[in-house]
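Appendix B.2, paired examples.
Example (i):
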Amino acid sequence: MKNIVKLIILLVLLCSFPASGYARSMEEERAMCIALNALARSQCKEPSSYSYVGKQGASIYIYNTFYGSKYKDFFCKVNDGEVTILSRDRTFHRSVVYYIDENDCGVINYSSAACTDRRVVKCCFAKSEKEIKADKEVDFWHKPIPELLQEDQEKALENLQNRTVKSSETKPE
């Protein structure tokens, strides 16, 4: 009985906090993506090597990574068209330019001189299920017929192979 009362109290406390205070808007998600990718590009690292620490003010995102000989915090301020990156001890300072394309994606076309990765980075809004389904439908109608036939043939052969494997297995007696 005591556990049930504790559970009810816990649920009431959790439900009383506003969920929207912790939820991020799509614009904020895109800004975080732009900041993280600008930071990663400026140091020629993968974005996965950074840990999100927090947010300071309206548009400053704090990330942490191993840099030099120790872990350092980096402050990434996302302005209109530019990300300013500064380490906590001010030994690292960069400005990375980005732009918003016609699809509302943030596009970063930056790479440091020592980095061989020169791909363009895009940070877009997350798509809804409806948009994903519509994109798949558009892709389907734009595929040439031989490709569609090839896909159908591969699926049919895979199904046939699965049936053959299942039927050839010995059944326990």
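Example (ii):
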Amino acid sequence: MGQNQKRFKPGQTKSFMQQVAELKASATVESLAEAGNFQISFQHLDREQGQSFGRWQETTKLSEAMETLRNYSARPLRSQLDGKKFTEYGDFPPDAKTKFAHPAQVPPDASWARIHVDGLHCLIGHLVENTFYLVFLDENHEFWISELKHT
């Protein structure tokens, strides 16, 4: 196939890039609201526990975390919960399973979740509809300590 020829899947009349460009061109504020895609809030970020953005920047994990969040932002939050990379825990972990304390700024009935940036680094927060409220940066997987390494 020549370099200038386009590859299409059977039955496809437009390339993926053309489809994305058209979707972006047709986006309106109303269509963005209706999509209900993943959003992030820093309203409940705890600066007393876990690591700082500066620490994660020193170890290059901050840019990886931002890319991870950017990738999640294209679809509704709940459709991406997979129990592996993105897990909803529900209640805050019991004291014997965590090195963190429940922060005062987070509602007591919050539904806790985590997003793996890599095997050890996690973004810890809670979910409200399509919003992930980032609470902790956890570089050592200490929010919910498990028997298995790197899970």
